[in-house]
Write a structure and sequence with these properties.
It is built from 2 helices and 25 strands. By secondary structure, it is mainly beta. The protein folds into 3 domains: 38 residues, no CATH class; 63 residues, Resuscitation-promoting factor rpfb fold (Single Sheet), CATH 2.20.230; 153 residues, Methylamine Dehydrogenase, Chain H, CATH 2.130.10.120. The strands form 8 sheets. Strands 2-1-4-3 form a 4-stranded mixed sheet, with helices on one face. It has a 4-stranded antiparallel sheet with strand order 14-15-16-17, with no helix packed on it. Strands 18-19-22-23 form a 4-stranded antiparallel sheet, with no helix packed on it. Strand 24 and strand 25 form a beta hairpin. It is elongated and about 105 Å long. It starts with a helix and ends with a strand.
Length: 328
């Protein structure tokens, strides 16, 4: 009875030892598969181990993809027998090109010239800009071209033509000087409506700020900005109206919409700024206050930005006393 009981036990031990022996043996290498690789204008068959990726197939074929190169299927794809791989060589090329900026033509109506008469005030000059392009080439064929940088080498100078608009009228005497805005330009009448001349001929005055100094010598005004309205609404300028050839001077101020005034007894201007907004009325008032001299220098802040009360978004107004002391 004892010998019969031991036989199954010996059989189980033998099977266990056999399984342990088999598990300790080295695994068999994977079978070889054949895939097709198309690269650099040629197609070749390559043998790789089953379970290899596209990257390993390129390595086996002695092909070294560059950083921008693309593969179909992707590099990480596990291959099967008969798969086809295509490598696209991708190249990034930068090139610059100089482009002429055509000058604009501005027409200024001059009421001191007979109607129909024209006069060239300023000859136009083309500008020049340098544009850098980024081109992507796949297997030598351009698939995209994008401008990545633009530098203006020379600004275009507009051509300004003065056109006579004088009509028959009876001159009227004026006890002093009168400045007025017409077609985006500033004009002055001196002593008579017949004695008119243009003092700012840029054609871009927006009329938001248009103030003559108390002594009648200087005019502050705002011009439409060349930047998008979402970034900058206008800029603040001054011009000496007494000069025969007035030259506007930028006061290094911008986004001045609702307040700018001369400070009594000085050659300085006080102004408040806004921030452009898409919603009506097109700005959000800062309700700050700056002071700037028309003789030069940078603006000086006198009042920090603040809410300005219930309707402060529109903009507070300021006023100076006769001795030049500020009152809000």
């Amino acid at each position: 009875m004892l010998r019969i009981r031991l036989r199954p036990t010996l059989l189980a031990i033998s099977l266990t030892l056999l399984m342990l022996t088999e598990s300790c043996r080295s695994p068999q290498l994977g079978a070889q598969i054949t895939v097709s690789i198309t690269a650099d204008g040629t197609t070749r068959a390559v043998s790789v181990r089953d379970g290899s990726t596209v990257s390993q197939a390129f390595q086996a074929a002695g092909i070294a993809p560059d950083e921008l190169d693309q593969s179909e299927p992707p590099f990480y794809t596990v291959l099967s027998e008969g798969d086809s791989i295509t490598l696209r060589r991708v190249e990034e090329v930068f090139e610059t090109e100089q482009i002429i900026i055509p000058f604009e033509r501005q027409v200024v109506r001059n009421e001191t010239l007979p109607e129909g008469q024209t006069r060239l005030v300023q000859a136009g000059v083309n500008g020049l800009e340098e544009v850098t392009y980024r081109s992507i080439l796949e297997d030598g064929i351009q698939v995209s071209k994008t401008a990545v940088n633009t530098v203006v080498l020379n600004e275009a100078l507009p051509e300004i033509v003065m056109v006579g608009a004088q009509a028959s009228f009876t001159p009227l005497n004026i006890p002093g000087n009168l400045v007025y805005l017409s077609s985006g330009n500033a004009w002055i009448m001196e002593g008579s409506t017949a004695n008119r001349r243009i003092i700012v001929s840029t054609g871009d005055l927006d009329g938001r700020i248009f103030r003559l100094s108390p002594n009648g010598e200087y005019l502050i005004f705002t011009r439409k900005s060349k930047k998008p309205a979402s970034e900058e609404i206008n800029t603040l300028w001054v011009v000496r109206v007494k000069n025969t050839e007035p030259k506007p001077l930028w006061l290094k101020a911008y986004n001045v919409v609702h307040f700018a005034e001369w400070i009594p007894g000085t050659n300085s201007v006080a102004y408040s700024t806004v921030e452009p907004r898409a919603a009506a009325p097109g700005w959000q008032a800062n309700n700050d206050l700056y002071r700037v001299s028309i003789t030069g220098g940078n603006p000086r802040k006198m009042l920090d930005a603040n809410s300005g009360g219930v309707y402060g978004w529109w903009g507070m107004s300021f006023a100076y006393s006769a001795d030049g002391r500020l009152g809000r």
